[in-house]
Amino acid sequence: MADNNPDGGVSLDVFDMEDKLAKIRSQVTSKLDNQRNLALILNAVEENINEQNNEKTPVAYFVSFLALLEQSVGDNGVSDGKVAAAAAYFLDLVLPFTPAPLLKQKFGQILTRLAPVLTSPDAEAALVRSSVGSLESLLLAQDNQQWSSTGNVSPRRALVGMLELSFDPRPKVRKRAQEAVHKILANPPPSPSPVHIAAVLCGELSLKRLVMLIENAPKSKKHSNNKESVSAIIHALQLISAITSANSWPPSQVEALCDVLLDVSRTSDQYLVGAAFSAFDGLFSSMSNDIDVEKFTRVLDIIFELKPPVDDAHLAASWLAVVANGIQSFAKLLPKTCLAKIQSIFPIVSEFLISESKDIYVSASQCLIAIVSESIPDDYLLQPSATNGVTAEIYEEVDEAITYIAEFIEKELLSIKFQHATKEILELITASVLKFRKRSNPDFLNILESVGQWRSNEESNFPYNKEAEDMIAACISTMGPEAVLGSLPLNLTGSNKNEPGRAWMLPILRDNVRFASLGYYKQNILPLVTFFGEKIEASSNKESMHIKIFETIVDQIWSLFPHFADLPTDLISAFSDDFAASLADLLYSKVELRVTICHALRLMVESNLAYSQGALSDDLMIQEDFPFSECEKNLAYLATKSSNILSVLFNVFSSTMPESRGFVLETIDTYLQIIPDADLEVTFNKVCGLLKKAMDDEAAENEKPRKDQPPKLSVTMMDLVVAMAKYVPSSSYNALLSIFSTTVNLQNDALMQKRSYRIINKLNESERGQQIISQFIAELEKVFVDTIGTTHTSARASRLAALEVVVNMLPSTDLHFIPSILQEVIMSTKDVNERSREASYSLLIQIGHKMAQGGVIENSKVAGFDANAEATEASLTEYFTMVSAGLAAQSQHMISATITAISCLVYEFKDQMPQELLIEIASTVELFLTHNSREIAKSAIGFVKVEVLSLPEDLVRANLKELLTKLMKWSHEHKGHFKSKVKHIVERLIRKFGIEAVEEAIPEEDKKLVANIKKTRARAKKKEAAAEESDNKQGKKFMSAYEEAVYDSESDDSGDEQEDQNKKSRRGKGADRYILDTGDEPLNLLDRQTLTHISSSKPKKFTKSDMKEAKMKMKDGKIVVREDDDEDLLSKGSGIDAYLDAVKQAPVRGQKNKLKFKKTKDEEDWSDSEDEKPRKLKSKADKRSRVTKPKQKFKARKKL
Asked: Which family does it belong to (predicted)?
């Protein structure tokens, strides 16, 4: 409630009210009557306030709207519904901002006017809803003294009326009343008691109403009033939820409420059960303060006193759910007290696991899982420390709780009487281990051993192997592999005759080992590779089953290595020089192990880097065992080894084929991140030396490598230079840029040119690399300008990407670089390589942004320009002038590329360009529509499409006649899809401007195209209407309402034309259904498998003759079945058919050796006829023809 500001200013709440009123004022022209009516009434009230020379304060509005309400509501009821609704609406809006003393003073007057509305059965829902909101604000303003009064016009009587409205059949009214009750009770007036004075009243009335509704509810589900009775009970439960969630339920009524709610939970109606649980949740969630401890404890005691029988199918599951929610809420309020209760709660809930009902024992296991997961805070699992708040006493209590749970599971739940719930108990054990983590060791080791024996006993055929493996996996990830393998040894060598072999644990280890001891793997698991390797070598039959098993085990043991290297706890001691040397030897000698070893080497660095950057900052237990200081020590240690590791990786990289190098390059990049600058400089200099030597040697030999050989050494070394580029220290910048400037000039070596340009892109990936580019930007500009003519075609995409980096960092003083490279960029838009085209579009846009930033272009510095050329100001207009210069070129290819570039730029910058410039560009490009060159015309048509889609309507409309006159020149050209493109543009114009405008502007001889489009659209609409009518008659059939909602959709774009009229018509939806013969077995219509016996096609018994006639043929030794859809494809003809048709339609020599054409209607001629053309009958040749892949169309920029 807002009070007047004592300092004389305006309260912030008043500004909030003004915002709401301003929104209503703006709706004076709304098309909705109710919105317009509100705006008009507000204007009238404000005019009245202004006439009386009053300020528009909350009090002024309140007085005005209250007077309006008094006029429209009399003692006999509502006299003017619209005015009353508006007055109540504005009172609901204004009352929260009205001073509380005024509302206390006017309480009786306001309530007297609201009462007829609230009690009238004929009042509209909107009016009642606003009145409830007004009453809510009015009651919130009353003090404790007024709430204590018992007169006829008192807050208590008003609240009783609001409680009655909480059962109103109108959903919005009911919800608004329940929300109002919640808010009133959640905001009690100042008093000695923290609970609202009316809480007891609300609790008693709502509980009485609920009990009455339950007693009067019909016992039979088939009773006609059952639905209304259930709805009324749900409404009562919703009101109770509103009261309990406001922490206002009277303590004396808690036991009665729990009893009734549990009684409601026994019903089979899921909505009633859900509403009862919601009331319980409100009761639990509201008790969040220390003052609620006693009440919460009492509630829990009551719930446990109401424990149902173990086999009560209705109430047991509901009771368990309530217990789980209650314990979770209690643990948040009093974790220590909840921890002490675990030992008494666990046996009570576990009793329900004895039940033979699956629903009950599953609910019991879920309840136990919730108790274990939520009753002990994660912080309590830490070691005692002054920083985390865990005392020695808490640590001991947690230890006792974990020991108790483990012993209870081991001695009770794993006994024979719980055998039917083994799956659920295993899930409970898994959840417990995941919760307690390292604190599970050693209490859960005996359980682990028992479960491991169940899983290892292959003869018993244990049915819950997956759950057992999940439990073992949880132990591995929390206790560590060392503890698990101590209880369940792998025993792969068979050294222990009393233990079974557990090779099945290797994949589980692989998927769950992390943050483990690398030394343990090195000493206890990796030696098994040698053992089985010797067995394999000693075998004479390498293809035997045993040898294959041994090889699989060896592969699985090696697959563990990367996971033991993922944030190892003992990296410094385990990753010794000897171990690193043995890995290096394996990288050289065992090609099949390279991926695994490189993955492990990479994870050693990446896991420590990620941890140091806060990847596991929320995991306090890991930080306790592995502080950030240890991680920093690991990285420092790996940095000392990085130089030698990189040398090995460089050698492996050099001997690996290009298509298999990716993983090695990723590992190299990882170690380049941590290598010291001094070592990196030495390594970089070595690579540079090898590169120079390789280039010199290859220049002398001048031999090309074969396809089965690794690439030239110079290319390999260049790959390494590119990888190191963004990490090299400042002392190596000159050498790096020297390599770049040398290799970009290798005109006959495309591979080297590609990699050379990638250096710039790599540098751009790091902040330090960007500083290098900025520092040497002038030198780079010169290199790029000098190498325009020497760039190999296959290196064009890399060059354009590098140019984009340079342009992005180009200073405003070096804008003369742009005209130097612009022609090359424009020409690249017509490149055969798609990557080059995409890069050229991106670069054109980047140049546009740079030019839009402004600056001076010194044309005297542009290559080929006069030394005295005047400087120009950089702008988008100047940029388009520069690009448009290409339209005056002598080459058709250059003109076409220029038009394509202009299309891209117009599409991107249309909103930033002056309209005069757009008109000039459009008129200029449209001139090329009349050019005889198909290449130029194709680009010009592409521009027209951009123009139609992007430019302002008035601009296109003004030029429509001239545009269509030029465009229609190509409407009869079949080659290069000209005809279809023109038709598509005309269709777009019709959608945009209407068919009359286009028909008026199009040349007379081409109006049959518009007629064709018009009839095509009409035909499409007619077919769609017929299809819809057919659908309505047949009816849609879906398995469920959900499927109908998801899959049953109609096209909203009814105006779109169908360009291809030869498509197959839609199949009827109401097809017949046939039941297949099931032999002597009668068809069970209640069986789900019955659906498999129902077919949409008429069943037929197949004979040998039918099999001979089946559409099967042999192809490459395989049976190929051709379906009906293939016939449709074949009917469309192939490339050979098109050739034959062209031959048939070619001119023939007639009398006097004159050429004569056959008079056949062309398929694509514009026809005014509405009749569809008859389809050509399929011939045998058609059936044998193959469906050819259509030629790939020209791809421009996707946006275009």
From this structure: Belongs to the RRP12 family.
Looking at residue 21, what is its pLDDT? 87
- In the structure encoding, which two tokens stand for residue 973, read together? 């050209």
The answer to whether 875 touches 854, Cβ cutoff 8 Å, is yes
pLDDT of residue 436: 94
pLDDT at 294: 78
For tokens 């114009």, name the residue: 989
- Write the CB contacts of 1182 (distance below 8 Å, at least 6 apart in sequence): 1130, 1131, 1133, 1137
What three-state secondary structure class fits 74?
Answer: strand
Phi first, then psi: give them for residue 1185, nearest 5 degrees: -75, 155
Residue whose pair of structure tokens reads 């190299």 in the numeric block: 668
- What single-letter DSSP state applies at residue 521? I
Phi-psi region of 994 (alpha: psi -120 to 50; beta: other; left: phi over 0): left
Question: How many other CB atoms are found less than 10 A from the CB of residue 979?
Answer: 17
Alpha-carbon distances, residue 939 vs 728, 796, 1196 (angstroms): 45, 22, 10
Please state whether beta strands 1112-1115 and 1094-1095 pair in parallel, antiparallel, or not at all (unpaired).
unpaired
Find tokens 């090299």 and name the residue: 728
| Spatial distance between the Cα atoms of 776 and 420, rounded to a whole number of angstroms | 76
Distance CA 189, CA 847 (A): 67
| Sign of the torsion formed by the C-alpha atoms of 471, 472, 476 and 482 | positive
CA-to-CA separations, 63 to 68, 81, 103, 106, 274, in angstroms, rounded: 9, 20, 11, 10, 45
Cα–Cα distance for residue pair 847/815, rounded to 1 Å: 10
- Which stretches in the chain have pLDDT values below 70? 1-13, 75-76, 219-225, 286, 288-292, 702-710, 974, 976, 1030-1200
Q: What CA–CA distance (Å, rounded) separates 410 from 417?
A: 13
Entry pTM: 0.71
At position 692, the amino acid (one-letter code) is: K
- Spatial neighbors of 370 by CB under 8 A, at least 6 apart, are 324, 327, 328
Q: How far apart are CA 987 and CA 995, in angstroms?
A: 9
Which long-range contacts link 882-891 to residues 24+ away (Cβ below 8 Å)?
882/818, 882/819, 882/822, 883/822, 883/826, 883/844, 884/921, 884/924, 886/823, 886/826, 887/924, 887/925, 887/928
In the chain, where are the structural domains located?
A: 1-141, 481-539+547-637
Separation of alpha carbons 940 and 960, rounded Å: 15
Q: What angle do CA 1005, 1006, 1010 make, to 5 degrees?
A: 135
**Tokens at residue 886, please?**
């290409």
**Separation CA 287–CA 498 (nearest Å):** 57
The token duo for 783 is 């290199």
The beta-strand segments (E) located in 1029-1143 are: 1074-1075, 1094-1095, 1112-1115, 1118-1121
1046: phi then psi, degrees, rounded to nearest 5:
-80, -45
The conformation of residue 1151, written as its DSSP 8-state character, comes to G
Distance CA 639, CA 626 (A): 19
Residue owning tokens 């219509």:
1085
Structure tokens at 652: 């492996």
Are the C-beta atoms of residues 1067 and 1037 closer than 8 Å to each other? Answer: no
CB 960 within 8 A of CB 917: no
- Separation between Cα atoms, residue 868 and residue 798, nearest integer Å: 34
In the structure, how many helices (H) and strands (E) does the chain have?
56, 10
**630 SS3 class:** helix
pLDDT of residue 707: 60
Contact 84, 127 (CB under 8 A): yes
> Is the domain defined by 1-141 classed in CATH 1.25.10?
yes
- pLDDT, position 730: 87
Output the CA torsion sign for 1057, 1062, 1064, 1065: positive
Question: Tell me, what's the pLDDT at 609?
Answer: 94
Whether the bond between 96 and the residue before it is cis, its omega within 30 degrees of 0, is no
Q: Give the per-residue pLDDT at 1162.
A: 44
Please give the DSSP secondary-structure letter assigned to residue 390: B
